[in-house]
Every structure is written in structure tokens, then in C-alpha cells.
Amino acid sequence: MKIINFKLNTNDKNVGDCYLPDSFAGKLPVVIYCHGWGASKKLDKAPLALSKALTDLNMVMVSFDFFGAGETGGDFNQMTDARWASNLADVFNWVCEQSWADPKKIGCFGTRSGSTAALRFAEKSDKVAFVISVATCLGLYHGMHQGGPAKILVENLETLIQGGKARFFETDFDINFFKDHVTGAPIYEIQSIKCPVFFLQGADDNLYRRAEAWIGNQIMKKNSLPVKYVEIEGGDHILDKVPDECAREVVQWLREIKILS
Q1: What is the pLDDT of residues 123-175, one digit of tens each?
Q2: Which letter does DSSP use for residue 34 in this model?
Q3: Among 29, 35, 118, 211, which residue's CB has the most CB atoms within a 10 Å radius?
Q4: Longest CA–CA separation in the chain, Å
């Protein structure tokens, strides 16, 4: 495996890494890794195991820092899900232009809030070949037991309208974050995703994340869309306790949908 670094020259100038096979010929399928809140492009155990498995099979993994994270930087309280989805679109377009990428076989692997960005992007783009969603966030229970952005928006509406901020997961956001999260949540338009979606969850993950994945799975099934739902026994929130099982499930599914031969 070899690693190539990049920095975009557009919008938030996202910084990332490309994990490529040591040697290859032609254009390769690509998975773009989308990290969650509090994380970065640095690969945790599960995506790292996946990167090794994919490069062995002549596939590329791309990982990048969203706005407010890692080397991309920026004030995190200016983050919105729409901004992260736009970051992903910028990286996706950059990948499409690379000589090693097959533009018809580029998809996303989103974990936690990264899954929100991946699903929102897939709802708007017909170029995405697939989406893998781990610790899925559709917008229903984003705040879990704390209550989600909709609850916080209602409770702090007067303050937010007057230009103040409200706290969500240790960060103070203005009204733009809450309005975007509530009105643009993937749950409303998930039926518009035409590419295959794989909801890959840890059986030991919390009920909120598993419930959102199951609801997304059911909506897509009801609309006769290509979808699969799997829970890995012993799997935690981000599947770091089962990295090899995560890699195997993803590789098997990518073969099922003809991304890998």
C-alpha cells in the first residue's frame, strides 16, 4: 500500500490521504471514508483493516478531514451537515478527476455523522456508486438520550432567533446549524437514493444508531431500492472491536453489487 496526500484548492480546502495498491494498471474503484464528530482522516481500526483489504484487491480508499477537523481545520461551531456534505462533494469531484479512479465506481463509507454527510450527498448526486453506513445518523435520534437538535431548537428558539447560540454535544451552535440539521436530515429524502446502500452496524452499538439504520433499511426496502442491513455480533459503535469482520462484510457486499469482481 502507498499513501498519497492531497489538499483541495476549492471551498474549505479539505486535506486528505489516498491509500492505493503498490502497483496497479487502469482505473480502480474507490471508497471515500467519511469520519464522524471528534474524529479525523486518521483511520481507526475498522477502516484501517478495510483499507488493507481493499488495496489488496486493487481498490483505493480515500480519507479526508471535514471542515472543523484535523488538518483541514476551521471553527467547528460553523459546521453544518450541509457543509460536510458539500466537503464530500468537493472530494468526490476531485477523486473523479484522478487518473487512477474509475468515476463509475466511486462510493462512500460514512461512520456516525459522516454517514449523515454520505447519505445527504447520495440523495442529491446520481454519480455515487454505493454508500456504506456505520453507526448511522439519519437525523431522528442524533442527540440520543440528550435529545436531538429539533428539541434544542424548540427549547432555545427565542435565543437562537435573536442571534444567540445553544449547546449541542459540547459545542455552541447558532440557528443555522439547527435549521439545517432539522430540515435536511437524510430521513426525509432517503427514498431518493438510487445507489445501493449497506447499513453495517455493530450488534453491541446503542439502540439509537441501530434503530436509525433499521428505519433507513425499511424505507428503502419499501421503495424497492437496493439495500442491505447487517449487524455484526460483538460489534461496537464504530466496529473497532471487529475490524476484520467489518472488512469481510464490506468486501463481500462490494462483490455482490459488482464493484469488486
Answers
A1: 999 999 999 999 999 987 766 656 678 888 999 999 999 999 999 888 999 99
A2: E
A3: 118
A4: 59
Task: Go through the chain and tell me how many residues it has.
Answer: 261
- pTM for the full predicted model: 0.96
Which residue reads 446520481 in cell numbers? 126
Q: Report the alpha-carbon distance of residue 233 to residue 230 in Å, rounded.
A: 10
Q: What angle do CA 247, 259, 113 make, to 5 degrees?
A: 55
Which residue in 251, 260, 212, 257 sits closest to 51, CA to CA?
A: 251
Q: Which CATH superfamily is domain 2-142+187-256 in?
A: Alpha/Beta hydrolase fold, catalytic domain (3.40.50.1820)
Sequence spans of domains, the chain: 2-142+187-256, 146-184
110 neighbors 118 (Cβ within 8 angstroms):
yes
* pLDDT for res 212: 94
**Which residues lie closer than 8 Å to 132 by C-beta, 6 or more apart?**
31, 107, 108, 109, 110, 118, 197, 198, 200, 250, 253
DSSP track, 65-117: PPTTSTTT---GGG--HHHHHHHHHHHHHHHHTSTTEEEEEEEEEEETHHHHH
Which bin fits 113, alpha (ψ -120 to 50), beta or left (φ > 0)? alpha
- Write the pLDDT tens digit of every residue in 168-225: 888 999 999 999 998 999 999 999 999 999 999 999 999 999 999 999 999 999 999 9
What are the C-alpha distances in Å from 58 to residues 67, 93, 167, 186? 29, 21, 44, 31
* 164: its cell numbers: 444567540
